[in-house]
Design brief:
Shape: globular
Largest sheet: none
Number of domains: 1
Number of helices: 4
Distance between the termini: 43 Å
Helix content: 55-70%
Order of helices and strands: HHHH
Strand content: under 5%
Structural class: mainly alpha
Length: about 90
């Protein structure tokens, strides 16, 4: 397990540190008090979505993201707010 952590952690940190102005814009609009606690997860989701939509933007496709964790309602609301604001931002472009 330690070997996996040593291999994945540096790559994950680089992935999370990719500059994303869209996320900064969305983060300013989110009113949820949990946004600072979950900023790395939001960065990860945002990067996955940006990578996915840059490859498959013209066709209707399915993307499934699974979380193996039980989130509280406030945390689920944060993710919903993030996705809603992000989708409204995408529809403007």
């Amino acid at each position: 397990m330690e070997l996996i952590k040593q291999h994945i952690k540096p790559k994950l940190e680089v992935y999370l540190n990719q500059s994303n102005l869209t996320l900064l814009f969305i983060n300013d609009q989110i009113q949820n008090e949990n946004k600072d606690k979950y900023i790395n997860l939001l960065l990860y989701i945002d990067n996955i979505l940006c990578d996915y939509f840059s490859k498959y933007s013209e066709d209707l496709n399915v993307l499934h993201i699974h979380f193996d964790s039980d989130f509280k309602d406030e945390e689920k609301l944060l993710f919903a707010e993030f996705l809603l604001i992000g989708s409204l931002n995408l529809s403007k472009h």
